[in-house]
Amino acid sequence: xxxxxVATPEEGAVKAAEIVIKQIKEKPASVLGLPTGGTPIGLxxxxxxAVKSKHxxxxxxxxxxxxxxxxxxxxxxxxxxxxxxxxxxxxxxLRSDQTHIPSGTAPDAEVEVNAYEAAIAQxxxxxxxxxxxxxxxxxGFNEPGTDPxxxxxxxxxxxxxxxANARFFTSIDEVPTRAMTMGIQTILDAKVILLLVFxxxxxxxxxxxxxxxxxxxxxxxxxxxxPHLIVIADTAAATxxxx
Length: 243
Ligand code: F6R
Fold this sequence. Notes:
It contains eight helices and ten strands. The chain has helices at about 10-25, 40-50, 80-90, 110-120, 160-165, 185-190, 205-210, 235-240, and strands at about 1-5, 30-35, 60-65, 65-70, 100, 130, 155, 180, 190-195, 230-235. Helix 1 (about 10-25) crosses helix 2 (about 40-50) and helix 2 (about 40-50) packs parallel to helix 3.
């Protein structure tokens, strides 16, 4: 694992954008795996700046998001599709044929997750997967206890995760109870993984993920097995790693 320590999330966003841009310059038709959440917003705004100034060309990339709530339509303000459209697709001029997110309104969720996994394989697999980490170690919506061999699947969200995400909804009751997510093995199959970890509230889980055992209790700990993992952590998140 390569650990890049940055002073602030803003600096982390710039570093992360450099890595993503380098990937796309080396392979213009790169397949990117992308997260939603608070963590990647700075990265997405750096990428939008780079596209606008023609520093990088996104016209051949494909993107696959990690996850989507089940039960929310694409145009629901809280859907991950809307999040991506607002934070990345529109500002980077990505065409709809370049972007992929499991459909939250697919009539049969099992058919949808299998088709999604097949679409990733059809695209040639993920070249670079960007990740955030949840307070309980979840990656995508892979909660503690998830089979490390899992592929894209349907999940029931834990109370912990629904509470953490309630900040984007009017109340916790509005947070869907189910979601679709790439599995841990889908993520581990990416050629390169770029994990972004910012803030003091992530310090304990980051420490457990990389200084503790590989364990079902902390899904992010399975990243320890990845041959090409880059972690960008700000000082607040990384304090315990260096203590
Ligand atoms: C979202 C995702 C989640 C988030 C995690 C951290 O697509 O994959 O695993 O990365 O919940 O969220 P933030 O960045 O809001 O702290």
